[in-house]
Amino acid sequence: MAGQTAGFGASSVEARGLTRRFGGNTVLAAVDVTIPASSFFCLLGPSGCGKTTLLRIIAGLDVPDEGTLRIGGIDHTRTPAHRRPTNLVFQSGALFPHMNVAENIGFGLRTQRNMPKSVVRRRVAEMLELVAMEGYGDRSPATLSGGQRQRVAIARSLVRRPDVLLLDEPLSALDLSLQLRMRRELRTWQQETGTTFLCVTHNQAEAMELADQIAVLNAGVIEQVGSGRELYEAPRNRFVADFIGENNIFDGPVGDSVDGVAFPDVDGDGLEAFAVRPEDLRFVALDDVTSRGTGVVRTASFTGKSLRVGVTTVTGRELLAELAPSQGDFVPGQKVGIAFAAADVRRLGRPVRDQVQ
Ligand code: ATP
Fold first, then answer.
1. 49 Cα nearest atom in ligand 1
2. Total domain count for the chain?
3. How far, in Å, CA of 193 to CA of 7, rounded?
4. 319-336 residue pLDDT tens
5. Which residue among 64, 135, 256, 329 is buried most deeply as judged by most CB within 10 Å?
6. For 257-283, what is each residue's pLDDT tens digit?
7. Where is average pLDDT lowest: 44-53, 107-116, 125-134, 247-256?
8. Mean pLDDT for the chain?
């Protein structure tokens, strides 16, 4: 759907079989992903999984060894960066130090031939308003805070009205409270322009807050694509369960289920695995569990909203329980029985990455 601000574009991005190798190292292994037009899409994965490489291929700063890339339905696999309907915002958001804020934002427009000065001025003013920096046009970048500089960097990319705005870890250089505020702002700018935003991040909370859809990347392979809620509630495999939120992951089968209550079985061979959310774990009387369902409290902390209790099981596994404060106090060294409702068990498949090797 088009945004509320007129004149902005939006395109879908379709990667098919994108493969990139550096030396003998396969950094992207036949990546298939479809990013819908006008969506906020996040590529999420740990350091070194290939996120930036994929973003650079979409931006036209790198070329895949195999596969195709379509933007807005047009094959752009080998189109030079400056001829693509994309624009990339770098992590540092480096601005030209000798230009003021307005000149920085207008820079990309002034290099476009035949753009009347009045149009440049209007578009720059529109951008200053969008990123809530009216009145800052004459300021030098050196006088801005980190968050303000990043706002200007994003405005400088958006002013060219790309169909797809590419963002590489755009908030990682900011302190946490500013990150939280700017997540909401980024989301608002995407909605107001209707432009497709594709953001690379290793921060799952950030991806969950920003994105309509998230692709979880693991060593060059996409493990799962879905909304934050889908990934949280139905992780397809152990990698996704581990990366999204704070799952307790058990190797081996679920133990006996009595009246809908289950207990962890002995850790098995890893062929079967399941996950239980910290908020779904509960502690029961020791009499109610067999020895394999017991653990020892290691840490207990009160966060205001909840009680977070770390437990080590008899098999040496570290678990985390998030309990309502009304559940009482737990002290390190205390023995507890561990249980969960059978309905809260999420069975996990093998990561896709393990299957392609
Ligand atoms: P980070 O979050 O740390 O930036 P990332 O997921 O963005 O990680 P990439 O930057 O895409 O990861 O890098 C993926 C792998 O490819 C890394 O092992 C990296 O060392 C390697 N790599 C990236 N670019 C090159 C290059 N030009 N030459 C050789 N190896 C490269």
1. 6
2. 2
3. 8
4. 999 999 888 889 999 999
5. 64
6. 555 566 665 555 556 788 899 999 988
7. 247-256
8. 88
CATH of the domain at 281: 2.40.50.140
Regarding whether 318 and 301 lie in a shared domain, the answer is yes
Q: How far is ligand 1, taken at its centre, from the CA of residue 46, in Å?
A: 11
357 inside domain = no
**Cα–ligand 1 centroid distance for 51 (angstroms):** 8
Domain membership of residue 138 (yes or no) is: yes
pTM, full prediction:
0.87
For 130, other C-beta atoms within 10 Å of its C-beta total: 20
Number of the ligand 1 atom closest to the C-alpha atom of 62: 27
Phi, psi of 348, rounded to the nearest 5 degrees? -115, 135
User: 275 and 231, same structural domain?
Assistant: no
* Residue 162 amino acid letter: P
317 vs 80, residue with greater confidence: 80
Domain assignment present for residue 200? The answer is: yes
| Same domain membership, residue 38 and residue 125 | yes
Residues near ligand 1 (Cβ within 6 A): 22, 27, 45, 47-53, 202
Q: Whose CA is nearest to atom 10 of ligand 1?
A: 52
Which residue puts its alpha carbon closest to atom 11 of ligand 1? Answer: 50
User: Do 85 and 229 belong to one domain?
Assistant: yes
- pLDDT of res. 342: 81
What ipTM is given for this predicted complex? 0.95
Indicate the top mutation candidate among 25, 26, 53, 243 to test ligand 1's pocket, ranked by most ligand atoms within 8 A of CB. 53
Q: Given a cut of 50, is residue 1 above it in pLDDT?
A: no
In the prediction, which pLDDT does 256 show?
A: 59
- Choose the final residue of a domain: 181, 203, 238: 238
Residue nearest to atom 20 of ligand 1 (CA): 48
The string of DSSP codes covering 197-208 is EEEEES-HHHHH
Collapsing DSSP states into helix, strand and coil, what is residue 32?
strand
Q: What are phi and psi of 119, to 5 degrees?
A: -70, -40
Domain end (from 238, 257, 275): 238
- If one residue of 19, 20, 21, 22 were mutated to test the ligand 1 pocket, choosing by the most ligand atoms within 8 A of its CB, it would be 22
Evaluate whether residue 326 is within a structural domain: yes
At residue 71's C-alpha, the angle toward residues 65 and 75, to 5°, is 55
Domain that holds residue 313: 246-352
Task: Note whether 101 and 138 are within 8 A (CB).
Answer: yes
Q: Which pLDDT score is estimated for 259?
A: 55
Q: Whose CA is nearest to atom 30 of ligand 1?
A: 22
Same domain, 58 and 142: yes
95 and 165 assigned to the same domain:
yes
